[in-house]
From TrEMBL:
It comes from the Bacteria. This is DUF3046 domain-containing protein. It comes from Cellulomonas uda. Pfam families: DUF3046 (PF11248).
Amino acid sequence: MRYSEFWELVEEVLGSAHGRELVATLVVGALENRTPAAALEDGADPREVWHAMCDELQIPQSQRWGADLRRPAPPRR
């Protein structure tokens, strides 16, 4: 996931202003008790940061990817 995709999901799933506020202020245990912004600044993978935020906020899997266009393809059998 690119940083631009991370921010698109933040805005789409959490809302523009609210999402950016959460990135700046939400302390997430899975991110070593850092905010998502601090984790990204420290070089954390945006995908890991996104999933940690979603876990912390208890966002269901079905809502984590916003529009179906970004939803990962199911594994092939």
